[in-house]
Every structure is written in C-alpha cells, then in structure tokens.
Amino acid sequence: MKKIKKSQWYHYFSILIFGIAIFEILNQRLGLGYGLIAIGYYMLRRSDFEK
After folding, report:
1. In a domain? residue 18
2. How far apart are CA 48 and CA 27, in angstroms?
3. Model confidence pLDDT, tens digit, residues 35-51
4. Cα gap 27→36, rounded to integer Å
5. CA distances (Å), 11 to each of 26, 32, 44, in order?
C-alpha cells in the first residue's frame, strides 16, 4: 500500500471539506458553509507549503 504524504493528506482533506461546504450552502446553512470554505482554503494553501 502506498503511503500518503502529508501534503497529499491536506489536499484530499480540503477537497472533502469543500464538498461538505457546497452541500451546506445548498441546504441554506450559509454560515457553516462559508466557514468550511475558509477552512478548506486554508488546508489547500497548507498543502502547497508542505511540498
């Protein structure tokens, strides 16, 4: 089994968070959705710095 690097983990986790955020925004939970977008963006930027 291939080991997942830390930067890949951040990348996959941010994609998951973005998906949940879109789902929450579509369900009219805007505060939670936009908060998750901010967290997802932070995780995506973090994955760039880990390389």
Report:
1. yes
2. 31
3. 999 999 998 888 887 66
4. 14
5. 23, 20, 6
